[in-house]
Amino acid sequence: MSDAEMLAIAAELGYSETAFLLSTGERKYRIRFFSPLAEVSFCGHATIASSVALGERIGPGTVELTTQAGPVPVEIAADPAGGITATLTSPPTSTRPASEEEVRLALATLGWSADDLDPAYPAHVANAGNDHLVLAAATRDRLADLDYDFDALGKIMAELGWITVHLFWAESPTVFHARDPFPPGGIIEDPATGAAAAAFTGYLRDLGRLDDGTVLTIHQGVDMGRPSLLRCAAISGDARVKVSGTAVSIQ
């Protein structure tokens, strides 16, 4: 299947990303991700969903996925409720402080002010296969009230190479609520973003807010009526992180 054909299918489906898998050996697959507008190098939630679908067909165990961002092993397990949980090991994470200009541009297009940010969590650009601007909302109400300039934010993100803007509010040191505007994919908001969750986990570790092995809970999609739950953990002595989730088949 050509790149143009995969992009056309993704555009027709209209989901934030569509995954395409090609078997390269026993429990080994090449996986590519396309938004309605372009190919994405790594997509965590589509990796989880694809792995759950594989688990339904080939059973529990480890699968080795090769993405444009590098290898992503996934552990597939049956859960006590009879469903399937997939746990991916992300590409290596990295972070850097966002510049004042980057933050200013983002806030202007979001319609936020500097007072809307939580100073306990400084703005960073975090990466786990692709870049995400990470901004902390000072209150849950600020996170819930999202009405941004789609075209303006999309232009800035394209210029700066951000795949999403990861907006979050800290309920506790290990429980977070998140929203991810996704103009580069032609989508107002992503209901679950595994790649951003992985990058965010690396961000917390780099800030010294996360011990290896501590499990984070991230609630996403709640404000758009499509609730998702992601669990993440840093790996001792490894720049990668683990992200776990499940998926639901759409009939």
From TrEMBL:
One Gene Ontology term, aspect cellular component: cytoplasm
Active site location: E17
Pfam families linked: PhzC-PhzF (PF02567)
SUPFAM superfamilies attached to this UniProt entry: Diaminopimelate epimerase-like
Coiled coil: none
A GO term, aspect molecular function: isomerase activity
Keyword Isomerase: yes
Keyword Transcription applies: no
Assigned keywords, A-Z: Isomerase
NCBIfam families reported in the protein's UniProt record: PhzF_family
Family recorded in the similarity comment: Belongs to the PhzF family.
Protein name: Oxidoreductase
Species: Nonomuraea cavernae
